Structures are given as structure tokens and as C-alpha cells.
Amino acid sequence: MASIRLRRDEDLPACVEIMKAVYRDSGYPVEGVANALEALQGDDQAWVAVDEGVVIGHVAMNRGVETYVNVARWLETHPRAEVAVLGRLFVHPERRGRGAATKLIRTVEEEARKRGPRLLILALVKDQAAIRLYRHLGWEHYATTVFRWGEGNQMDAECFASPLS
């Protein structure tokens, strides 16, 4: 059973390799993995799932900025809301189905409860397993939108807010 701890700098190479494996398996993240290390280094706070001393998964909590489409959609109906974004959630494809993603999500939910912001996440429609997991964990669907990246790339996406309790 995986344990969750704050990500350390020495975890970054393993996280990059896992992100590459996830990308090969499912196309996540859609922006690709050419700049994976830089993307991970930009996280405000992050955790890893560790099983038998090996990093197997990752999640981050970042400030919710209005340029993120899911944050903009939330602020349309909650203009004064304090929000954070759950992001860069991934578990090595060979280690899925054992609860690591749920533990990573619950860790970020608990941290957000301590700090005060409501957590938001954007899930691409193609990632139905992730959408099923968020719904199973009680996340509230609040919008359907389009996620745009790069030059002219776009994909339908679902927006979710964390449970209140």
C-alpha cells in the first residue's frame, strides 16, 4: 500500500519518468512531456505516492489563476471564491488500481481544508477513468468547457470542484 509524502527535489527524476510512462500509455498530459521537469518544478506544492521505497505517483496543488479555464468558469458563479487547482495527478500505469490516486487526491483535499481554498480540477473528456474517480470521490461537476493548448489544439473537458466536507 502506497504512502503519501511531500515531494522532494530528489523525487523529480522519478516523477519525470512516470509522467513519460503515463504519456505513452494515455496521452496525458496532452501538452506532452518535452518540458516535464520544468512543469513539475513550477508546482506550488506537490506530493508523491511511494510504495516499497519507490515513487509511483504524483499530485500538485497550485494557485487558482483566472487564466485557467476551469478557474474562470468557477469564478463566473463564485466571484469572490478562494480556489486552488489540483493538478499533475498521475500514477505509473503498472501501479494503478491500488488506491494511490485516491490517496493523493485525499491528501490535497486535506491540505486545502487547512488552508481554506476550494479545489478545482479539469479533466479531459477522453480521460473517463479520471472522471469516474472524481465523481466516485464526491467531486461536484460544475461545467463543461474546452481546454486549449499550443497552436490550435483543443479538447472537450469537464470541470469539478472538491467536496465541501
From TrEMBL:
Entry keyword Acyltransferase: yes
Superkingdom of the source species: Eukaryota
GO terms for MF: acyltransferase activity, transferring groups other than amino-acyl groups
Domain (N-acetyltransferase) ranges: 2-162
Pfam families, sorted: Acetyltransf_1
Keyword presence, Acyltransferase: yes
InterPro entries hit by this protein: Acyl_CoA_acyltransferase, Bact_Acetyltransf, GNAT_dom
Keywords, alphabetical: Acyltransferase, Transferase
The protein's name in its UniProt record: N-acetyltransferase domain-containing protein
Species assigned in the record: Xylaria bambusicola
Lineage: Eukaryota, Fungi, Dikarya, Ascomycota, Pezizomycotina
